[in-house]
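ok here's the first one, seq then struct tokens
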Amino acid sequence: MIQPQTQRPEYWGTKFALTDSDIERIYNHFLDVERPQTTEQIARVIIAHRVAEEQNKVARQLAGRMIYQPKQTYETGDELVFPALEYQHGTVTAVREGYNPKYGKFTVIAADMGKKTLEFATGLDTDHPLNTEDMAEIGGGLPVDLDELYALYETAVAETTFRTLQEHDSFIHLSGQWFVKEIMAEVNIGHLHLSEAILEMSAGGPLTVNEIAPHLDMDPSLDPEVQAFSLNYKLLQDDRFDEVAPRDHIAWFLRRMEPNGVKETPERLRYSPIPYDRALLSPQLRLLEQELDDEWSDLPAEQIEGVTKPQTVVFTLLYPHRWSGVIPLSARIRPLFPPSNSPRQRVVFIDDQTGAEIVGSVVQEQRYIYGLGEWYEENSIPIGGFVHMQPGPEPGVISLGYDRRRSQREWVRLATAVDNRIKFDLKRRSVGCGFDDLMIVGTDVIAAIDALWRRADTHQRSVASLLAEIFPELAEANPQNTVHAKTLYSAINMLRRVPPGPLFAELVRHPAFQSVGDHYWQFDQTHWQKGD
């Protein structure tokens, strides 16, 4: 059987692209159905359109012409179509006798194909595909199994369709669906004001448009899908409203009623990238960096392989996160939260012991989840404490807990401020949470530590100068005057937001810091100069 082009895999391969005819067909499809469509639905329209185009093209090519078959005979001047040559046209210009020991006598025609002349066997009644092919099938009129084509090529065509429609202003994409501007429902400023009032009466939200629209007195004759799509589009254009749902879902929150920690990044979480030479980090330091899983550690792909699926995650609470009441949106934690196109996303945490619900907000760009301050405080979780999370019963719901244990008095590094410098003392404190003893730090004078942080920020103090200040204080608690890299990481983040990469690079780069093995370091004052 002569296979049409649209049934060949290569036709839908990497070179497949939408044409102006395809775009016009998509547009007309929307005018016909008058409702939003998914990318997959549009892909099916394209596949069916291409099949119909090919069949119409073949029909035009065959009009008034004969289809070449080896068993037939032809005369000079006959107009032929050659299916095996993609339905090229040819005019018979000569006929001669031919012979082949296998087939005996037959005739040979010369056909003018336009730019060249080719010869074909005729009068040859053999078991040849073109001789046994049904004429209707050769002519392109064979029934095409569109469902089979959809199953084979819908995904590839959908990907191309998505990319192409993004380049056309007439098509709007929202929550996994497409529509065209010209036939969207009218949404006026009055509808938007009412939407704001409805959200305000609902504590800011979140509400879907299906919950908002019934109160807006919109045209009841319109398709509900068109109403929903049109209202979503207009709300998206208005800064009063924040879209906070996972990808392919839409829910709205009133922006002015969002917590301050969502509208603005808490000052302790603001990170200005610190340039450093990553080549300075040994394989061991890179493994430690991966273990610490800081949200601002942009780890190479090979270091975060295997953390793309939601799984139970245990993280160690850092001072800036405890101070701001957030969870870091790090490489290991990010997969717990459903993907979203919105810069902010509402999620719900469920305490795995009490069942209490805590509403949180994922702030994508600044890499944190806000809303855990009261939970940290109620459970007295220390800096350095272990917090664990795992996927909940549905997307956007996370099971949350910590390493609960009977409270007992532990040695804790407590920070104070003396003469505008940070000091650390080891003191006993009651701790009812599992913790990393290398990272546990605390303070009874939060305001004083905040003042040191602002002072360091104002003077734009370098990582090296901050290390030189905290290192001797931490080293006094160890007879060998050594400090672990994890301790330095936890402590320096009381004064400046510093991820492990630039911190470790500075330890390696500066001669004042000397490695003594197992991630422990010493500080050699003789190699330190003022102004470093």
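and now the second one, same deal
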Amino acid sequence: MLRPINSGFRERRSLNGLWRFQADAGSDGWRAEWWQRPLASRVEMPVPASYNDIPAERELRDHVGDVWYQTEALIPLGWRGRRIVLRLDSATHRGTVWVGETQVARHQGGYTPFEADITGHVTPGEPVRITVCLNNELSWATIPPGEIETTEDGRRVQRCFHDFFNYAGLHRTVWLYCTPVAHIEDIPVVTDLQGTAGSVDYRIETDADGSVEVELFDADSVRVASGSGAVGRLRIPKVHPWAPGDGYLYTLRARLRGAGADEDRYDLPVGVRTVAVDGNRFLINGRPFRFTGFGRHEDSEIRGKGHDDAFMVHDFALMEWVGANSFRTSHYPYAEEVMEYADRRGLVVIDETPAVGLNMKLGLSRGAPRRPTFSEATVSALTQQAHLQAIRELIARDKNHPSVVMWSLANEPDSTDPAAREYFEPLVAAARRLDPSRPLCFANYHDAESPGRDAISDLFDVLCINRYYGWYVDTGDLASAERHLEAELRAWSEGYSKPIVITEYGADAVAGLRAVAGSVWTEEYQRDLLAMSHRVFDRIDAVVGEQVWNFADFGTEPSLHRVDGNRKGVFTRDRRPKLAAHALRERWMAPRRPQR
């Protein structure tokens, strides 16, 4: 699925803005067929945004069930004779879409796009009503999973198994776009380097017969290679590789020709680079790479998970200021604008599916009872099917981004349960078939505190480990934390000849809470815990990366240990630096010893 673009052959129009909105906890809209007419509600809701924090009342923040969005769009007269498509970049977590009175799309999964060809349902030059019913419910048949609980007074409460707020809404852009009737559908590319030369293997997928021509242009719009045919290889004699800190992009221009004339043309940004794992080294373009950066969230005040270009650019500026060269899309795919910006900025990305909460040992939300993680009543074949869909859609969307160097298939699953192997083996195999060019990982939970307790790490290429020594373990005792962290990491290093990336470590700190002694919850303790962790990392050759949890404070479900959200950010939720941010800058911006 290609991203909508503006060109001489295609045109896109954003439908972002204020949409009519109606909450519908009882699913009355389905019975009354609300898509048949304008919504009676006079409430308006911004798109893109989470709806939860927009109103002043609490009811919508805790809403469980359906909500309805509706807008009217004018189909441009100039689109007559074109293929017209409606695309939603996300609908969290399930969306059903009508154009006029006709249902045109339905999609499960809150973080990847879906679209519908609506050519036969609209008239160029005329307006059309677009209605979206969105549902935020999670179950054991969804990724991420969850459960609905009914309280004694009849209220429905969503129980989640992840530690961030279950924001919902149209979080990303809704597009109308047009293409030629005969059009290019997808362009998978794989790049390689051979000394000072480079190559781009491409496949042009179309919906029509016709000849295909391909050209490759450098950043100065100079043509450096060309070819013909739907499948081929473009060679670049003197290549400028995409590299961390150097987001150099070529443009692959694909033309679909019919009867001697262009039918369609699509320009795809391409970064030429390689990724490989060699023993305990992670290589980009054949050179050892050390990850410095963060786990993050798409999260800000009022907007929730709604994408915002201003926040994106500011967050990247802060990451670059602190010396980060990478981040993980914890715990779901981020907006495509973020991936494109990472490509251009040269930031490295570990791209993660929404598979968070596959672990009944965590019991994060509302006192969840302890049950087996893998069973017919919890993580089952239905969960696995949804997980596989999430993997397919993530790779289909992000396969061409040079910034993406690794796929993370899950965050903190119960990998100590032997049943995890039967669950993950087919998912790993599917991911390798879909993209053999990138390594695979998952983020390992603390309960698997030694290789002997883990059932699945041998299936993956890189060990990504989430550990909180000095916070959840050895709380307030950094001397013990240092010993225990080093002992565990040495066990992993000796048990596997694989690179280790610490994908989560850190401590909560309340901004402005200061103490000479550096007790827990202070900015000093957060800084000192990070320094302790870094001493350990630097003593172990297999550790090739450190990604602090978290870049910024973020919203969570309220609880006794989450006061106004998770405070593990080195920046506050409104992006003010804590002491830890300055300490990280001092470490990450300093010259480092050469890696092996």
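notes on #2: The chain has eight helices and 32 strands. The chain has a mean pLDDT of 95.
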